[in-house]
Amino acid sequence: MPDGLTTYLDQFRMLIAQIGNALGYVRMIRSGGLHFVSNAIRFVPDLEDIPNFEELSKKEEMSSESIEAARILDEVVANLNQNFFDGTQYFQLLVQVFAKQLSEKKHVHLKAFYAILPPLTLNYLEYIMAAKDKLNKMNV
């Protein structure tokens, strides 16, 4: 508001923006993680048929150091494989958690959330117009 007072609608708009920013941050971090994992897993030729390197090195009667290295390689490849395929599940997990919490009786008032969207949209437009006018007055 131009006079420095914030209404409940302004506070609600800011809360919605903060929630959106938090979700955007989570998505950005997850995208970075998936990017890293996909770059690392591209060296695994077949994700559906990953050999057990420890067993293969034991079968070839390699040294204990080679067997240990093969075991560690198995763990790394399994971890990459799990992270690669679990990477798309985070948003569904968030939806499940919030759906469970918001379906409780203490949040029954949120069933009418759709009713606040038109005034919230108008409030956002007024805020943007006021900010634009303020910038124009500063000759920016």
UniProtKB/TrEMBL annotation:
Query: Residue ranges of the WASH complex subunit 7 C-terminal domain?
Result: 67-139
InterPro entries the UniProt entry points to: WASH-7_C, WASH-7_central, WASH7
A single GO CC term for this protein reads: endosome
- A matching Pfam family: WASH-7_mid
Q: Where does the record place the WASH complex subunit 7 central domain?
A: 6-48
Q: Name one GO biological process term.
A: endosome organization
Protein's name according to its UniProt entry: Uncharacterized protein
Q: Which organism is it from?
A: Tigriopus californicus (Marine copepod)
Record lineage: Eukaryota, Metazoa, Ecdysozoa, Arthropoda, Crustacea
